[in-house]
Amino acid sequence: MKYKKIVQGKFLKRINRFVAHVEIDGEFHVVHVKNTGRCKELLTDNATVYLEESDNPNRKTQYDLVAVEKGKLLINMDSQAPNKVVGEWLEKHCPWGEAKRIKPEYTHGDSRFDFYIETQEQKILLEVKGVTLERDGVVLFPDAPTERGIKHLYGLINAKKEGYLTAVFFVIQMQGVKYFTPNRETHPKFAEALVEAAKAGVEILAYDCKVWEDGFEINNKVDICL
Description:
The chain has three helices and 15 strands. It is of the alpha+beta class.
């Protein structure tokens, strides 16, 4: 996945979930934050950030904040990007065999899942979760309580009982991490639901990503500790 035009800036302040102040080439800008999570460990004073410049002259904000440097890590924090990179990845690297059909945003029961996939032998429901929270090389999800995430897990469990192959894909939006684990401190019920899903046969996948200032792509499988 590639962005069109990226500029570097310096993070100043987050106003709310959607808006931040950034300095670009010595000038003050109000920018859109493409992640509504807390991201407190990422958006720190004077952090180097990367922004996509919009080509729409009618937008209220000219830039979207999409990536940030955290120490030696470059982290993509665009919450819309994981679905895009997984879609690209499935076209060439579907782990369940050649994909005959890939349909994004698929409704099953009372849940909408990120992908419905058909191979020669399987019907698959896949939910994608972007991961940006890192502590000493360990990556965690979620960074804030997510009742929606729990609902998706139980939806996958139910679909598994109906004969679907079901999976949740944690896209780690950085490279060079030790392992992935659910964030029990922030949302213990999500961690419990993830363990229950794994026991019920829902596949749990976690991959890190190669990240550049202007894009990123799925890289290697990462160890999972439930």
